[in-house]
């Protein structure tokens, strides 16, 4: 058990289930086949509520959103049961390189994902972002660790505790995932993060991964990482960093023209019967293995 977790929560919670990951808002566990539980971190009630409300909005939408969001099964004020994915973009890209296991310093990029797959992911992610824009929201924390991959390598957007309305103040997450030159959430902030994710996928490294604090000033002054080609994806990366797309819908429309985008169309929306079955499983867990879940709160 990670030391910090033991300091915050009773040890029993971590003994019952496999710990997957921890973030600012919640700790994530695998509680059943295909089901992940995100459990509230102390002091993050507002962010947890925001994420729950965003998923409720996604569920109520008519017509439904594109199938590039993680499916929510059951939500409580302190716990969120959701679809469990086998991989994340972050772990996939890190597996493609040789790096220090502790510092994560990259020694060598061993391989890159196929161009067609990157184009598919670009189409899927931009489609999700454009849909959020259509209801005047942004995800607010775009980074590879918040992009999950299903068993067929389709991308799913997750983690909405930083979700915000277009025009809200951007608190200024550190580059390369957030622009130091845009202070209000909107198409500019989201496409900047999109461009950095695209660079990460096409080069195997985060933008300016080796620069440290210098990264902020470089991006602030418009000095972008060198792009080694005039390929369509490198050109798209630069266009996103320069905020050349007036809307995220424009970005999604462009990404839909990429050759690999045709594979995004094969993604199937989850059917209601499956969702109902998984929700029933979550309710059964709350009556059995997780009957005392509320007592795990500090």
Question: What is this structure, in a nutshell?
Answer:
The chain has 298 residues and is α+β, with helices and mostly antiparallel strands. Helix content is 38%, strand content 16%.
Structure commentary:
The chain has helices spanning 3-8, 11-16, 45-60, 89-95, 115-134, 187-203, 214-220, 232-241, 248-255, 272-287; strands spanning 18-22, 26-32, 35-40, 72-76, 79-83, 87-88, 97-99, 106-109, 137-138, 147-149, 155-157, 164-165. It is built from ten helices and twelve strands. Residues 1-7 have low confidence and may be disordered. Strand 7 and strand 8 form a beta hairpin. The chain is globular, with a radius of gyration of 19 Å. It has two domains: 11-84 and 269-295, Phosphorylase Kinase, domain 1; 87-265, Transferase(Phosphotransferase) domain 1 (Transferase(Phosphotransferase), domain 1, Orthogonal Bundle), CATH 1.10.510. It is of the alpha+beta class and 298 residues long. Strands 1-2-3-5-4 form a five-stranded antiparallel beta sheet, with helices on both faces.
